[in-house]
Design brief:
homotetramer, 4% strand, 258 residues, three-stranded antiparallel β-sheet, mainly alpha, Cytochrome p450-Terp, domain 2
Chain lengths: 258, 258, 258, 258
């Protein structure tokens, strides 16, 4: 028979009079003392942030909370219309759409850079940027983290995020590299391809030491908050039913006419 | 034909050089200035919090982020095992289980109290508490927000949360009422039925002016963060496969023997 | 320490050369011999259906597969737009909205009738129907399974479903009862309140011996199939992006004008 | 302003006395006449199946319904434990895990073959198989649709599925090709790499004319049914709580000892 491996986790446990989260006493050390953003850092990094980490991480997170009427916000509202007894499932439905089209590029951008700088002691960033641009262009794949359909010629979030990173000592090789990639891509294509918000977030998350595989989690935590916001508005000013009816009316009218 | 109603929302919009969220310029006024917890308040309340609202709301939120190896944390990890390409869907799976068994009582507790105090100018809280206890006992339904299977005789989170509420001027009729309900329930049943964390959260969320129907959203935002934390740990110390294999081995061995 | 209870399940297991599902050899006895609808019955009832059970159960199921542009179909399409790498998560998002507003009434209808007829040997159906109508009217709650916003004065699916049930020997007390409830409700209110499709399904599922708590599962299995159908159409004739853009355009234009 | 594109869909519509699904009258032509499996074909292919298509498609589908205690089945059960009011969300949670690890290989297998045979009139299957094996081996990526951790040396489902395909005239180039790929891979690696169930399903779905991008949908429809089956068993013989408690106990005991 297969030998059991032990179940091990550092996340937390409870006794009759105590709750411990990541090694901290919830009641004594967290409630009333730690903010939500710092708690999020504790969850993914395993220890409470320094003031600098907190400033940079909160900046990344608030950038991703709200983008107005996105497909996932509309999906969450429509789901709530069908199942108002389960707000949690409406948010879950919205999160199911936080994928490669709209939120995955931070993940991909971080991946490209983390793999390029892995185990490289004194990286030649200009050469690495040129290599990355060449490889992506050869496979006719868009370079993650560059360009934006609306925010042209500059995604205004990126310079602000880099500024916060700089002020807190987290502007290093990754931030340099994504800027060099953008410059090289613009040179090679002749198009405006500024670092977009997910490119900046991918770079800065890498500076913070976060594994690229958890970068989509930053968007997920932030969007979960934004999606609850949409449900809160839906409670006061419902929109989902009108969206549904317009779609259904137009489709049905066309089908009936045939 | 049906007349269209206009699509209206205050959540946000973008132009080429600007992103506006709930009336605030994201780049100028939010990134680097507003913390994640305050952003969450902005999303559900529509305006930035006062320092007191911020303190109380962040305290509620951090209480709900992490509870160790809950069913929804395990579900998220197992989902990630099957679909590592979609961290977002793993968190969504976990949120699907944030329902009536483990997280809904804040909602119900807030509902009972908000309905009891609605449009009552000078409420006789002792009488209202007695009425609530009598009604629930008559229908043999547990009173939401009281008692805990592990945390006995006191749920240590509740006094701490009430303390934070008091320090910030948010300990009012709802907090009084839930305490009176607990006292009356203990008197009537002879059992220890302290205000549990979700009872305290239901009361304090009501003090903050939050509609009971959005109270599950507090748990959802917080748990989304906790679930990303579990995936982050799963990346480093995988647990899901061992859980699956132990279950499958034991079930299969039994079936093969029959 | 707590004593372990054994993990037990009858669902299935595998060996190197064999897969057993609910006691049947998948390769020998199921593939090429059992249809999908009968397999669904095997899953929830634990044994293969008789021809009569198969006819009735398949009739219930196909009724619920497709309803055109419902909120959950639109939600699934919008989710697929955001995460085309995870068709499974798009269907999951759609299923999150198969709840109390649109699909839960079969569950509730079955529940009301199963609780009313539980352990009653020779039920007086007319009196029971009158009691049910009186109770719901007293609490100002709509009676589950009656009335439809579009299908008036008759939901055409219900007589057809009852006909299939009758032809196969599954028209008994539950089917009688829902008809009597509808008659009594129409008499008491003076309104047209025909048995709707979910009322008929609730009654017929009860005739088939299905627990009311699994009745939502019939809708879930059927809608999962319908939602995959919507994604299949979305692949050929995309609709989600246009829905999103119309909503976002109208909301953004209004916000920019303020 | 952007010009609206019309909302168009062939899925279905309703009038007061009629429901039309994919051009068929639901009451007249589907209920009591079409089985669930054939309805599933109608949803994804747009027309009712021939008897041969029905036989082959139902065979594919029933193969994927049930696999015992998989990670997604356990996740669905744990979710139901937390939110029994929303069976739909429990199934959704399970579907979130039907991804690349366990169910995506039919998709990938179909993709590889459809891209290889696209617009090729008289394909040299042996050469194409050799090319595919060489390419995958060069990039050190496993070839989708081959090999199985348990079912060795043969996955018993594959020969049975090919047999059903042959009997119904759907054993063509794709089925030949996957067999040639397996033979070539076994020759090149010296390992047993038989066509597994998802390889067979990918090939046969391609024979049926299904786009590789919808192939995961076959697994999703089938698994949704299987997951409802698991909830049905959970209602009678609960397993989720014991799974949770064993995990939590073992983790907590370890943490308390430190």
């Amino acid at each position: 028979m297969r030998q059991h491996k032990p179940f091990r986790s550092e996340m937390g446990f409870s006794t009759a009079d105590r709750i411990v989260v990541r090694g901290h006493d919830l009641v004594e050390d967290i409630i009333g003392k730690v903010s939500l953003g710092d708690m999020a850092w504790l969850e993914i990094a395993g220890s409470l942030p320094t003031p600098q980490q907190s400033a940079v991480f909160n900046a990344l997170m608030v950038t991703l909370v709200e983008h107005g009427m996105t497909p996932n916000a509309i999906a969450a509202r429509l789901t709530y219309l069908g199942a108002p007894e389960a707000l949690n499932a409406a948010v879950a439905a919205g999160l199911c759409g936080v994928g490669s089209t709209f939120a995955g590029t931070a993940e991909n951008s971080a991946r490209v850079m983390q793999e390029a700088l892995k185990n490289v002691e004194r990286p030649d960033l200009t050469r690495i940027a040129a290599d990355i641009v060449r490889t992506f262009r050869a496979s006719r794949t868009p370079i993650p983290g560059l360009g934006h359909p609306i925010h042209k010629p500059v995604d205004p979030r990126s310079p602000r995020l880099f500024e916060v990173a700089k002020q807190n000592g987290y502007y290093g090789n990754y931030c340099e590299l994504i800027q060099l990639i953008a410059a090289e891509a613009e040179r090679a294509t002749g198009k405006a391809l500024p670092v977009n918000a997910t490119g900046a977030i991918g770079a800065i998350a890498s500076e913070l030491g976060l594994d690229w595989r958890i970068c989509r989690g930053i968007a997920v935590m932030a969007r979960a908050i934004g999606l609850v916001g949409h449900i809160a508005e839906e409670l006061k000013e419902p929109l989902a039913r009108e969206i549904w009816e317009r779609v259904d009316d137009e489709v049905s009218e066309d089908l009936r006419k045939r």
